[in-house]
């Protein structure tokens, strides 16, 4: 057993890693297309409310469980509730991370393929109508999809095996600032396009005419997906945080950064989509079909596309690090001698589990369960079942199984607003958060309709 538990070297290192975990496919890939297919401004408004009043309290709860126990995602629950079954929240999170990273790595592989095609000149030499067929051919190719997924997992493994300080923290401190700078460059370009007003109106003006329970569930799932809450990932990350740091400030900064990136993603993408006559309801292909066509029609468009793909890759990798880390930490139990072997074995198993998702758009496209491909089923299972239920149980655990003294001590550390923060947070986490999750979840699966 290692003598000293590894810790983040600085508060900014922790915040960058936590924000990196939160800001990934959720904010950059999934948010724009879910917003596009779910009403634009109305979806963004509900997402904002859920993120602040439900996502933030749960994030802070995960921080408290992790920092308060100084343990991995499974052991943390055992520390506060020994001899009970509450540790299954952590096990549920580890399983969810397995499934999530298995299909997440597929999309990460697509980004790598596009980067190679861009550098080789293939993306700049085709017409606007050819990007759709190109994307379809790419994801249908079994060899290309699986190989790219493998390379993405390899990159993730190589960083996580180095540990918290030398691997995750070091990579995140470089990647996250680069992501913000890249986004600012893209937005400046996007806001000079012809139909910028229409794009901004679609994204920021809420119209609730077509709002339904599924849109609300998607907004709830998206707020969890985008913040990495519900899987106990943040329990693991915060366990490496020194006691002197303020959890409330850290959680608030991570949430603010996530909302800011989601806002930037919308401002970068929707004006460009409307300016070039595309539909915002394109779906998952929005970033791979519409954006390359948009960039190709701009002066220096391929340069802007390269910047976007690199930041997209950085954001995806930093989230992948956290998913692999929660699993590795749970297996190694702080024994640093086991980290390297565990990281490689776990990463390769996740790659193998993800192969059916990689093949879901080609040879396995006709294989469906509940009318969903393997990829779509994995996505639905994590986003709409694992994350909401995980968040529900975390809120119940934090508010009912940890003493108020411990909760107040953790929230008060490093800030003079402890008691004020605590009163508001406790009200949310004990009553508002569980009730909201239960109502949205039951409505989405049709239970509430039986009583109408």
TrEMBL record:
Task: Report keywords, A-Z.
Answer: Membrane, Symport, Transmembrane, Transmembrane helix, Transport
Entry's Pfam families? Answer: SNF
Membrane topology listed for this record: Multi-pass membrane protein
Q: Which residues cross the membrane?
A: 12-31, 43-65, 86-119, 139-160, 172-196, 216-241, 253-278, 298-331, 343-361, 381-400, 421-448
Alphabetical GO CC annotations of the entry are:
membrane
Q: Name one GO molecular function term.
A: symporter activity
Q: Does the keyword Transmembrane helix apply?
A: yes
Report the main location listed first in the record.
Answer: membrane
**Locations listed in the record:** Membrane
Carries keyword DNA-binding?
no
Q: Which SUPFAM superfamilies match?
A: SNF-like
Family that this chain belongs to? Belongs to the sodium:neurotransmitter symporter (SNF) (TC 2.A.22) family.
Name recorded for this polypeptide: Transporter
Instruction: Give the originating organism.
Output: Bacillus taeanensis
């Amino acid at each position: 057993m290692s003598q000293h538990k590894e810790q983040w070297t600085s508060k900014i290192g922790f915040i960058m890693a936590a924000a990196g975990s939160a800001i990934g496919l959720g904010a950059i890939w999934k948010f724009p297309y879910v917003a596009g297919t779910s009403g634009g401004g109305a979806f963004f408004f509900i997402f904002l409310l859920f993120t602040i009043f439900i996502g933030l309290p749960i994030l802070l709860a995960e921080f408290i469980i992790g920092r308060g126990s100084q343990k991995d995602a499974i052991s943390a629950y055992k520390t506060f509730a020994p001899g009970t079954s509450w540790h299954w929240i952590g096990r549920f999170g580890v399983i969810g991370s397995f499934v999530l990273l298995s299909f997440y790595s597929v999309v990460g592989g697509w980004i790598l393929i596009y980067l190679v095609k861009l550098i080789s000149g293939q993306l700049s030499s085709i017409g606007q109508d050819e990007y759709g067929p190109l994307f379809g051919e790419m994801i249908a190719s079994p060899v290309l999809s699986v190989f790219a997924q493998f390379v993405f997992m390899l990159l993730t493994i190589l960083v996580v095996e180095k540990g918290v300080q030398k691997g995750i923290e070091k990579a995140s401190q470089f990647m996250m600032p680069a992501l913000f700078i890249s986004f600012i460059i893209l937005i400046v370009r996007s806001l000079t396009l012809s139909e910028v007003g229409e794009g901004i109106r679609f994204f920021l003006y809420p119209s609730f005419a077509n709002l339904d329970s599924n849109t609300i569930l998607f907004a709830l799932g998206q707020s969890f997906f985008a913040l990495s809450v519900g899987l106990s990932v943040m329990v693991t990350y915060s366990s490496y945080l020194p006691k002197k740091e303020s959890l409330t400030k850290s959680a608030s900064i991570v949430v603010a950064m996530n909302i800011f990136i989601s806002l930037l993603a919308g401002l970068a993408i929707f004006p460009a989509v409307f300016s070039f006559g595309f539909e915002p309801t394109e779906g998952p292909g929005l970033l791979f079909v519409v954006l390359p066509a948009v960039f190709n029609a701009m002066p220096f468009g391929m340069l802007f596309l390269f910047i976007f793909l690199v930041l997209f890759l950085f954001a995806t990798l930093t989230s992948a690090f956290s998913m692999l880390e929660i699993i590795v930490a749970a297996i190694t139990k702080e024994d640093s001698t086991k980290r390297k072997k565990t990281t490689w074995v776990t990463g390769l198993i996740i790659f193998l589990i993800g192969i059916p998702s990689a093949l879901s758009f080609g040879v396995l496209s006709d294989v469906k369960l509940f009318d969903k491909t393997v990829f779509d089923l994995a996505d639905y299972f994590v986003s709409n079942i694992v994350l909401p239920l995980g968040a529900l149980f975390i809120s119940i655990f934090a508010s009912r199984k940890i003493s108020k003294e411990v909760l107040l001590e953790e929230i008060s550390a490093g800030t003079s607003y402890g008691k004020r923060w605590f009163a508001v947070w406790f009200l949310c986490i004990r009553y508002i958060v569980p009730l909201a999750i239960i109502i949205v979840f039951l409505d989405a699966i049709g239970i509430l309709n039986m009583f109408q």
